[in-house]
Here is the input.
Amino acid sequence: MSAAEEGLRDTDLDDGRLHEFLTRSWESRKGLIGWFSAVDHKVIGRRYIVTALFFLVLGGLAAVAMRLQLSRAENTLLGPDLYNQVFSMHGTTMLFLFAVPVMEAVAVYLVPLMVGTRSIAFPRLNAFSYYVFLLGGLMMWIAFALNTGAEAGWFSYVPLAGPEFSPGKRTDFWAQMITFTEVAALAVAVTVAVTVLKHRAPGMTLSRIPLFVWSELITSFVVMFAMPAVMIASTMLILDRLVATHFFNPAEGGDALLWQHLFWFFGHPEVYIIFLPATGMVSAILPAFSRRPVFGYPAIVLALMGNGFLAFGLWVHHMFATGLPQLGSSFFTASSMMIAIPSGIQIFCWIATLWLGRPVYKTPLLFILGFIVIFVIGGLTGVMAAAVPIDAQIHDTYFIVAHFHYVLIGGSVFPLIAAFYYWYPKVTGRMMSERLGRWNFALAFIAFNAAFFPMHILGLQGMPRRVYTYPLEAGWEGMNLFVSLSSVAFGLSFALLGWNMIRSYRYGEIAGPNPWNAGTLEWATSSPPPPYNFARIPVIDHREPLWSGHGAPAGEVTGLRADMREILITTPGEAAPDLREPSAADSIWPFLASLAVGATFLGSIFTPWAVVWGAAPVAITLIGWFWPKGAPEDE
Amino acid sequence: MEGRFKIDLEHLDTAGFGSRSPITWGTYTFILLETTGFAMAVGSYFYLQSRNSEWPLGAVAPGLWPGSIITLIMLASVVPNHFIKGFARDKRVTAVRLGLLLMSATGVVLLGLRALEFFELNVRWDSNAYGSIVWLILGLHTAHLLTDVADTLVLTALMFTRHGKKKRRLADVEDNGVYWDFVVWSWLPIYAVIYWVPRW
Here is the structure.
């Protein structure tokens, strides 16, 4: 205590001096080493989002390549070998390198602002996770450029992905990419969960946590229970391939379905890891444009929990075609249909919010309306596919491709684009163009449906998925050409989004702190927020602190240090002030640790001994990370 | 921003133990996700057992002695570990230092015994699926053991420097103790699975 007592407090500083001191304490350092040392959650969050969007472009280009190949019957543009790689890279990229990271990235940026704190919990772990994610994604795409891309689908079923049918290093790169991205995702889940539990502004009791923050908290726990399954599975796969274990080899007592169980025990919750944050975005954006608080807050929180819980009881519905016992199939049909209940509760709450409000139809709201329409269609085909007799007919056809693109793009990407339009002014300080935004929405909505709705029909006509071509006599060519043209148009809607973001960064209208007159705390600070987020930590007494009649948070905290990074720790339930703790200073060591870990993972693709000789650099960089170096934050 | 009430928090502590500390919550969340990993590995063991009429597959059950001695030492280590956490809370730095030396020595002995344990499994990882899953589970626990022993050694060294007297470092000692408890308690079901299920 004694050293801390001597520090400079914010209590008697005027606003100008306070800004000066806090900026000096919290600003990231300049220069190349400074760039790699940054731990500010806004800096890391922005990098995470930009990187995930970069992978979205790569995954999208892979999709366009597939559609060009499928636009004509018996096309020879991509051969079967390259097509296998392209569709595997598309799915793997979209799920592991875009969807999960971008949803976590938005949390990394926004959650600390929304709960009214200066920093995310464990900021160095957060920075480490970003570099591990970046290295894993680059590794996989560089391997693809060297004709060593994933080739057995994003799910890498054995025996197709096993040593016998996938010789060479392609699937090894896929399996290690899983290790990279899951380490990153788990690390972010920990930082977000602890931020929500321990960093909330005084007065933000459980029933005042913004719904987006609730959704990210619950998602973090889903990540913690789901991701270890795929890490164990991909470890078994790479061991089968590299050191001749027999987990999936039936000749030596192994079992191929073990892979599917472990993969889908992760893979189904994965859908909710992507979807729940999107619902949180909807619950955050809708009230701002309906001009009223969201309808049914407790019901939505319980529905989020219900979704998170039930997500773990569905995985076998991906395996109905594997010949499971009938009782098992019936159980998983019932549980699959049951999850429509919490999803439905959320949708009814949103409709009621719109109904009772005075909607202002700006671009973010348009994308949310698009989300509701598309997601409901995807949900309905999901209920159909949950019935075993229907599933047996449509399994492995384009009907399923249509279904999950309706759910994933409708359920996650549309809310995400709404979120980009909504929070872009907070991140950059400028508004995106509303006129371009409306064109963006119109093109995206029409082109999406034109591209994916006909796939239902193609599937019902029997067109199988995961094939690189189809015979002319099948009669699917016309509709495939239409789908391909529409998917190019859908791709153009993203180009429009990108253009709007780039153009607005320079020429957009200046936003001010709260351009939408929204109610949550991220709008209480300037746009973009200063490195320290809030000059004085707010005290709140309302779920929408900026709508509570004061026009600003009800009160503020004094007594925090201004000459070093200090944050306020509160209790998990009532958010009562409990500790003033230092927050980690910038450090190059998390970046170096990620290089050491990355080199070890990469080396282990080629020799198991890499784990042994990689241990030394990993240990050294971790010790460098944790060893106190005399900064006031270390003490 | 004017006209609003202020609460002054100058009096708050700058470090706390147990559930007051975010680090402890971080440790708990890691324990949660690592428990899930163990559960998946153990679940896979029973799944593979259910797929085979013979178990253990083409091997005799693992030899009992190194694993059982490890179990006894681990259980015994919970006692000093408990006291060290208490010493840390009471800021008894010398007692913490001595306790950590004891825990470091215990950890190194356990790692040595663990190496012997692999030789007593009576099956290689590449013999069959039974060998593969047994090696995976033991390897997974060994990774945790190794990590925590390394962490304990570094922390012990740190406690003998000038940083050792800081309250935050003492909170780190407590967290390291919490994680050690996890390494011990997670071992008990794994010990039962590896050594006693094949003898069932």
Observations:
- Chain A touches chain B through 70 residues (CB under 8 Å).
